[in-house]
Amino acid sequence: xxxxxxxxxxxxxxxxxxxxxxxxxxxxxxxxxxxxxxxxxxxxxxxxxxxxxxxxxxxxxxxxxxxxxxxxxxxxxxxxxxxxxxxxxxxxxxxxxxxxxxxxxxxxxxxxxxxxxxxxxxxxxxxxxxxxxxxxxxxxxxxxxxxxxxxxxxxxxxxxxxxxxxxx
Length: 168
Description:
By secondary structure, the chain is mainly α. The chain has helices spanning about 1-20, 35-45, 45-65, 70-90, 100-120, 130-165. Helix 4 runs antiparallel to helix 5 (about 100-120). The longest helix is centred in the C-terminal third of the chain and has 36 residues, at about 130-165. The protein is globular and about 50 Å long. About 30% of the residues are buried.
């Protein structure tokens, strides 16, 4: 039940955000609000659910936006899965990172992996790496936003989860 709920929320946000960015001057630029769900799940010690949500939201989002068989879906999937793995490694490291710090790392890794995939699959020129500094800065900004929202979600749901458990 939880898998379905979190996947539905993440997929809906993913799809709505993909529709919203089509009107922006940079159609490839997204905040990544669906990743709030992934970061939240990671910090709730639900790594497998976070991985499932990452993969399924990308595939269903690609399906309903008619981009499933496009490079965009491959880039999103590669970036999302790699970012999640890096966030998990940082979470279990001996250095204590905050939810916002881990979210920032995930967003930056997501963008770096996407550029590497673009270089490998689409544009076989090193000049594509000139975008890397800009995308890393964007990743820092979007990671802060998604991390802060995930933190607030986590804090707000803590009391409600206890109440739900008592009422069951």
